[in-house]
Structures are given as structure tokens and as C-alpha cells.
Amino acid sequence: MSFNVRLGVADDGDDSWEHRKELLLETVRAFAPDLLGTQETYPFQAEYLLEGLGGYEYVGWPRQPGSQDGEQCGILFRSERFEQRDAGQFWLSETPEQPGSRSWDAAFPRVVTWVRLWDRAQERELVFLNTHFDHLGARARAESARMLREHALGLEPPGAWIATGDFNTPEGSEPWLALVGDPAVSDTFRAAHPEPEEGEGTFNGFTGERTGGRIDWILCGPGFETLAAAIDRTQREGRFPSDHFPVTAVLRWRD
Description:
By secondary structure, the chain is an alpha+beta fold. The chain has one domain: Endonuclease/exonuclease/phosphatase (Deoxyribonuclease I, Chain A), CATH 3.60.10. It is built from 5 helices and 12 strands. The longest helix has 16 residues. It is globular. The mean pLDDT is 97.
């Protein structure tokens, strides 16, 4: 599952965190993902999910250096199934190892959080990555897509990776093509639904709107096969758990 949880410090009135956090937790719990990538996540939001879900571990750090409680691209994984072997974060910039760095026309520093996991059920290792591309910089999104592709395709073991994120750009855009145009990268939603349809938008602005582009994706390498994928439009009495619809995928290891 990939879920932009909308930063919990935003003054969204009736849609502020305190009013929607229970519905958000219920939405995650209903799908019960083995792996969850969250965007715009503050530590208190991560703690709420960890406590409410139970049985998960969390990986994530603020994207701004020196901040202890800033926005993160967080990863939750089911601890019964996975063992963490390594984890880290790099910046989507020309100096990816420099904390807080940003390049091109990016408005903010942007990161990729990653964790290397041992899948106890399959006795195999995979890398799970989670990101949030810049919302303003078109060139930054394109360069970030190329960086993510090159990083993912260079991972060991080859093909055993999954990436989630809010990419702030729709299917068919330059960043999408930079990623999915490579045959070693699969867009799980399009793999499960080969024919595009109307109403596939994933940003809803707390209104339920579906006409925008599909900007939240789950990508994977050739080590995985997509069995199902969906856009989760859970709502309660016209209220939504976030200003983005979460997206989900069911994947299977390839032999």
C-alpha cells in the first residue's frame, strides 16, 4: 500500500488529522498490507499507526537536516514476516548523500527512504523504497525519476524491489515514462488494469474528486508479478481519510 497521509500539522478544518485519523487507521487495517509506504508523515502520525495497527516496524527520517520531528517518507513493514537487514535514505538531488540537499527546480528537499528486508515466508531478500517527488519542479521530478530508476535497477538481488510514492505527476508524463518506459520497471496498477479508464485520479482534496491524474504509484521490478491492484476510495459520510486515495497492490514473487 502507498498512502499520502496528509501532513498532520496542516490546518484542514474538519479534515484535520484529529478528525480523520481513526478512519485512516481503519483504511490501512482493512487492507492489512505487508508493506506500507507513507508520504507527508510526521513522527506522531507514524506512532499512531504503529500503535493502532500493531505488529509493524517503522523506518523513516525527516527530510530536513537537524529536524527531529519533520516530514518523512515512512515505511511500515509487518515484523512477523520481515526481518530488517539494512535501511537508509538518500536525497533526490545532484548530491544524494548530502542531507537536506535539493537541485534543479525543486521547491523542497526530497528523499527516498529504503529498507532491505528478509522475507521469512519465501526465504528471499528484497528492497522496499518509498518517495515523494517535488510538487512544483517539473525538471526535478524528471531527474528524480531517472535517479530512482537507476538506483532500483542497480540493487541486489536484481529485480527484487518494490517502490511506492506520491510522484506528483500523472501516467504518461516524462517522469512516468522515465521509470515505466524501462521494461525492468512495472506500474502495478496498469499491469492489473491494462486499459486506462476515466476516474483513475488519486488526489481528491478531501472531496472525493477522481478526475485528476493517477499520481500515486506502486512500482516493482521483474522479481514480482502483479496479481491485483486498486485505488482505495474508502470514505465515511462524505469524509475521507486523506486528501489522496491510497493505492494498493497484491504481488507474488516470480520463480
